[in-house]
Design goal:
With about 170 residues, the protein is mainly α. About 60% of the residues lie in helices and about 5% in strands. The radius of gyration is 15 Å and the shape is globular. The relative contact order is 0.14.
Length: about 170
């Protein structure tokens, strides 16, 4: 992928990447998650557009910016799945379990998009950093204890940069 959103909101996605991700099965459930992976990648790229449109977000490094985009994508996907569950997940264990499994599948798959080129400006975060960052918003939205609040998107955003920094400093190592 490439982002030119700093100038005009354009993102470019490779056809091969989209086809590969669209045909993906979840590593946890073995169910098709392709549609959700394409949506997640789009949410990640749109997060970059949001970042560039909001210069108040200052990132210590490119990898922090990438992990921040992963967290925003994870928030979007968790909200999307919750809103389309057709039930109140607070009281529906099966619906909550299904969303949790789907978020786990996507988190693992997002982790696979990571790398270990820690020296590179293009470093997107290693497997574990990306997997954890993507799934963290679901843990918050489902009521599990996390380092931040997610009662609203604006509240989530208020601590999201420091949270991305925490994830990079804690997990993005050999």
């Amino acid at each position: 992928t490439s982002v030119n959103s700093k100038y005009n909101g354009t993102i470019e996605l490779g056809k091969g990447l989209l086809i590969f991700e669209y045909n993906k099965k979840g590593p946890v459930t073995k169910e098709s998650i392709g549609k959700y992976m394409v949506m997640s990648i789009m949410a990640h790229e749109f997060a970059h557009i949001y970042q560039y449109a909001h210069p108040e977000y200052v990132f210590k490094s490119g990898v922090v910016q990438e992990i921040h985009a992963d967290m925003i994508a994870g928030y979007y996907m968790a909200k999307y799945l919750i809103n389309n569950a057709g039930t109140d997940i607070t009281f529906d264990y099966e619906a909550q379990k299904k969303i949790s499994n789907c978020m786990s599948d996507m988190g693992v798959s997002f982790g696979w998009l990571g790398d270990t080129q820690y020296w590179s400006q293009e470093h997107h975060g290693n497997y574990y950093t990306r997997a954890v960052a993507f799934q963290e918003p679901w843990r918050c939205l489902s009521g599990s204890p996390t380092r931040f609040s997610c009662r609203s998107f604006s509240e989530f955003l208020s601590t999201s940069v420091s949270n991305a920094e925490y994830h990079v400093n804690t997990f993005d190592k050999d």
